[in-house]
Amino acid sequence: MVAYRRLGRSGLKITEITYGNWLTHGSQVEDETATACVRAALDAGITTFDTADVYANTRAETVLGEALKGQRRASLEIFTKVFWPTGPQGANDRGLSRKHILESIDGSLERLQTDYVDLYQAHRFDHVTPLEETMQAFADVVRQGKALYIGVSEWTADQIRAGKALADELGVPLISNQPQYSMLWRVIEGEVVPTSRELGLSQVVWSPIAQGVLTGKYRPDQAPPAGSRGADDKGGAQMISRFLTNTEVLERVQDLRPVADELGLSMAQLAIAWVLQNDNVAAAIIGASRPEQVAENVKASGVTIPPELMARIDQALGDVVVSDPAMTQKSSPAEI
After folding, report:
1. So where does this one cross the membrane (predicted)?
2. What is the pLDDT of residues 129-140, one digit of tens each?
């Protein structure tokens, strides 16, 4: 079964492998398959589920809510997010204004068919709305019992520090950050992780297998396999074009196979186990387009990669790893 880790300095425990439905539920896979994937996650011992209102333009929340119907609510940890525009995309249907946050949480709860979410996250940093307004709105969401904890996603170290200071003043538990993190994308290691350790936040990381690139199924100078994310024209291919168009990245990923073989792991399991070696990571978010992918990927839980093999991974990937902390800043739009 999947192991649990504490989220930040809070008392909340979550499964170190968390199921997320970005780019799948409501878009890439049919509802029946999406439900089967959620059931597979539950069968494997996953109790933590991550989504966002913007995924498939709210459809992902609806599918997840239906899939979890009938489960004991207290036995689940449900996360969602707010920031990006949904629906008709009016002037106030975006960002982290008080209006958007308070309206969005009600929509998310209705779609998820729950009275509260365990974690409500700012999906990006809002450069337009005063941070004080944003944090006060999140505080009100918590005090109304609609969220138990709050988190952020893709915030820089300075933004996390400023947000945490205001959260502490308001008595609100800001306990997590949700960044992209993988063997290939390590931009949080230099600044975000040390700051989070200091302030008592954990990372709940997305794309631990680099949207499938670290599975090794994408070969240099070959077309993406049929049915893969790299062949998906609904948005999946665009999301991983950075890696798929770089032949050196694909070649170096193939050099990881001997390490995976030595540990008795698949390439995907190795990638997930690798992010979980970071003690500031509370959970790695996995997605799936087939139930069997969930059953396979949860086998990364509890795996320890010896230091010498961690070093071999670094040597194999070399300078294709992206580690510039400035990349986090670029993930939040200056205007919305």
Report:
1. none
2. 999 999 999 999
What are the CA-CA distances from residue 105 to residues 72, 139, 175 (Å)? Answer: 21, 12, 18
Active-site amino acid positions: 55
Q: For residue 25, which phi and psi values (nearest 5 degrees)? A: -65, 130
How far, in Å, CA of 209 to CA of 110, rounded? 31
Alpha-carbon distance of 22 to 40, in angstroms, equals 17
The domain limits of the chain are 4-209+278-303
The closest of 267, 197, 210, 215 to 242, measured between CA atoms, is 210
Torsional sign, CA 322, 282, 266, 43: negative
DSSP code at position 231: G
For the segment 262-311, what is each residue's pLDDT rounded down to a tens digit? 999 999 999 999 999 999 999 999 998 899 999 999 999 999 999 999 99
CATH topology of domain 4-209+278-303: TIM Barrel (3.20.20)
- The answer to whether 118 and 292 have CB atoms below 8 angstroms apart is no
CA distance linking residue 150 with residue 10, whole number of Å? 11
